[in-house]
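Input.
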Amino acid sequence: MRLSLSCFAFITASCILSSCEDSHKTKKEGRFEKDNYFSGSTVTLSLDELKNEMVDSRTDYLKSFANDQIPWQKWDQSLFEKAKRTQRPIFAFVGNSLEGGSRSVAKEISKSETLRNLISSQSICTAVDTLSFPEIGSLGYHLSNEIPRAMAFPMMIWLTQEGSPLAWFPIGSLSGWELETMIVNAAAMVEDTWSRSSQYAVENSRINNEARQRRFDLLQYKLQEPEERDELFRRNTRQLSSLYSFGDKDLDGIGGLLPTNTLVLLALGSNSKQFTDEVRQLCRQAAKEVTRELLNGASKDHLDGSFFYARRTADWSLPSFSKNISSQARISSMLLTVGTILQDDDFINEGLTLLDSMEKNWVKTSTICLSPVGDQDEPGKFIWNFETLEKILTPQEMSIATTAFSLQKLGNVPSAVDPLGNYYEQNSLNRRVPLSDIATKHQMTGNEVTTTLSSIRKKLLDHRSKNTKFIKETVPTLTDFALILKAQLTRSAHSQTPADLATAIATANLILREYRDAEQGMSHHSNRVAFLQARCFDYAATSLSFFYLYQRTLDEKWFNTSREILDEAISKLGSENGLLAESIPGERIIPLRQHNLSMIYGESSIGTLDHILNRIFALTTDDKYRKILDLHAKIISPMAKRSAVNHTDFIASCALGQEPLVAVLQGDITTAEVKKLLGILNSPKHLPYLTIRPLNGAKELAALPEMPASITPQTPAVILIKDQKILGSAPGEAELEQLLDRIISGNTSE
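Output.
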């Protein structure tokens, strides 16, 4: 009976379909034509024909995908043509070598027959390195906010053949069944949407991408005439100082990355006459205490002196255990700048030591990123328990280490940052105890303590090196060397030695030799690797570093180079809205004109660009630079009101003022007396507030006001000019220090 009913149902259904076939045939075919975006074309490429293309990729991270069974394709414009020919979406696996989990997750996907077959049978698979394409990393942040979910790499993004995102999911540290569940569900959703109506999928994602473009253009905000830059600097720095928390010696709301620009801005506030004594003192205290916490906390690797690039918790107790060369350069520059302004020798020495270590252990070995693979929290890697430590150290060393690092058998990771007890009985190596206190407690001399701590660090570092597998990247970007050059110039301004200046000049020449093509311009990667058009931050950071080299030497060729790089950026990245985009149109795999504003995820392109525009405008008064500066202020001014911490690099640029303060140096630059005057101007105490030029410079420099008859060109002196008015002059070092104090900080010693 059951069989009969089944047959009856089938026959009945067949009859209904047959009887209705003629009347519905046209309607059904029409609906199919509408649902199928590729109607009228045929599949001319099978997914099975695709081969893995990663063997000659630009970075070590991407080359590591070459042996995967997944047919990873290169991230370039050819993906679109392949997507059209296969009529399938694009699956982009987005990550980088800074997060060891990116490669681990990719390996897990490739080794899983279920996941491997799932994504490679449904999509064209490509791997994206955000170190090569930083704009995709920035896009990942915005896409995550749209879901909403916390941004995490690696990340999956499905795209149409037009480059518009269809779906996206941050993966982060997921593995095992959680990873499989996420990918299976996400892939099923994308496949269901695509198979039901590729027309809808393509057109809807295109509309969403157009709306996304409007948001990135930033002109959705009602532009208003901003306050003058002096007021922007004053109001926002004062607001930033109020974020300082006396109890935990931290800044609220500064995000996960180390706040190097925030600390520099606070130091600038402590030295500016624009603030009351109360605000200046608060800025000074915040900059000093947070910097000290940074040096004493676990974000500093107390075994080798380098710094992890980010933190996982509200304080400095649990860092993300990855490092990159740009973080070392940023932190060394910050320590030298803050230390000089606050007159703190400990900060200065830390900055010098870090920069020296970076040059020896990072630059010379071509180490750009270093990230641990696997369980980074396993005892004996980056955090430690007593049992592991006692196996490595002698009883005497263990006793001294317990004092120096405040070790506890139940762990020294604060419960406030470990409420779930994930790091119970674990210790981070934070050395907050002065050497003198260690010596007194253990009845040792200072030298004996130093020697013993050195032995302890070496033993623990050797253990960690042998028991931890790292992912290493050896392909530096233009930005990496631009930040290294900036750090070297900060050191040169401090030491005033020819050797340090020569090291900086060598780095500048390396940039021009390896990252500049005579026909194509600046490259994101070295020409020895492959030309890849420079990104906006590449241009901004490099132009600014070359300008600092000009300020350090007043050699006209460095000014010309800086301006040429800036003008190239304006020419290639300028858009109809007046802002500079992150990349040129031909390099936008995802067709979006992005503008990176967020300080929480590193310096912003616009903020860094504002610095160099400000300085070149100060010397040339070229209106094309002023127009971009005015647009920056109109857009960022209301944003900074809501959150000053997000825009500290732009606010620091405002320290130069609405009308630039120009220091005119006269005299023979080859003489020791004039070099000393130039050295004072280049000090971090003064340079953030002024721009330096020679009395008789290149023809590109703006005309100066008429000089008094008492000023003769060959007499060593500095004249301060603002808005074509002479504010004062100083013929010697002591007089110059007093003049700068009076104009900049208001701290007169008269």
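The two ends are 112 Å apart (CA to CA).
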